[in-house]
Amino acid sequence: MVIDHGTIVAMESIAISKFKATCLATLERVRTSGQPVRVTRFGQPVADIVPPAPSAPKAAWMGSLRGSLAFDGDIVVPSTELTRWDAV
């Protein structure tokens, strides 16, 4: 039984042998219905199959840093005096 903020939902139980035979169909049913399934072996719980948590939408990488850069002063002139460097 799953208790979720005052709501009690009876979790479906399935024997491990039946889960093994219908694994892909059971996983798809959990994904689409959102109802968890408990897998049991000899009546003892082995695993709970729960639907995935909602994922955050991916931000587009193009333009993702827009508005995060600030120009302070003139960007064309050098930031320091020009000096002559001697390479050895």
Briefly summarize what is shown.
The chain is α+β, with helices and mostly antiparallel strands and 88 residues long. The protein has two helices and five strands. The protein has helices spanning 16-21, 23-33, and strands at residues 2-4, 7-9, 12-15, 37-41, 44-49.
Describe the structure.
- With 88 residues, the chain is of the alpha+beta class.
- It has one domain (1-81): YefM-like domain (YefM-like fold), CATH 3.40.1620.10.
- The chain has 2 helices and 5 strands, in the order βββααββ.
- The strands form 2 sheets. A 3-stranded mixed sheet has the order 3-4-5.
- The longest helix is centred in the first third of the chain and has 11 residues, at 23-33.
- The chain is rod-shaped and about 85 Å long.
- The mean pLDDT is 81.
- Going by CATH, what is the homologous superfamily? YefM-like domain
Structural class by SSE content: alpha+beta
The total of helices stands at 2
Overall spatial form: rod-shaped
- Total E-strand runs: 5
The arrangement of helices and strands along the chain is EEEHHEE
CATH hierarchy: architecture: 3-Layer(aba) Sandwich
* Poorly predicted segments: none
